[in-house]
Predict the structure of 3-oxoacyl-[acyl-carrier-protein] reductase FabG.
Amino acid sequence: MAKLDSKVAVVTGASKGIGAAIAKALARDGAKVVVNYASSKAGADAVVAAIAAAGGQAIAVQGDVSRAAEAQALIEAAVGQFGRLDILVNNSGVYEFAPIEEVTEEHYHRLFDINVLGVLLTTRAAAQHLGEGGSIVNISSAATRVHMPTTVAYTATKGALNAITGVLANELAPRRIRVNGVSPGLVVTEGTHTAGVIGSEMEAGLVAQTPLGRAGQPDDIAGVVAFLASDDARWVTGEDIVASGGVR
């Protein structure tokens, strides 16, 4: 019996990168998975097809988590399709850098609306359905520890997310719902390619500072999330696991 058999999971922002790897990992462990996407239907459908080909169950559901009605509809789609909800992985996020001179209201609101408000709205909707043994995993970032230049707004959103994890771990503990975070270091994804990090001096510098000597891969993060989602982590809540190859 797989450790997530009979469980139902929602993974936001799961059409590519870390989110896609998490969705596949949860499905391999037996969960039925809702693959959320904002705009990349083709990417989400590909993740669902990969899960189905491996013998798992998944559906793709479109929704902008920064909009309350769409976040609510995402959770309702999961419960409507699979009858319950056990796991929420808040992975949706904008990975966008700018030096302080170029920080605008639009840049700030884009990052905070998705990276912070989206987590609150989706968790609010999920909390109506999660029961004892439920698990919420928030995907943060090791950027909150290394304080890289040009990441001020992005890092601020992830610092806020760490605070949210701690508060909700205490708030939901009486209902026996666990809330944890995972803070990836540099991971090779579509997002880090688009941001110009992969192949840059920034990547070379970060890898040089990484004790394990390489950039991360999405599966490196997915395994940590699968652990936190499972009963193997039944005594773990309010924690932020830094999955960075040793970068501190």
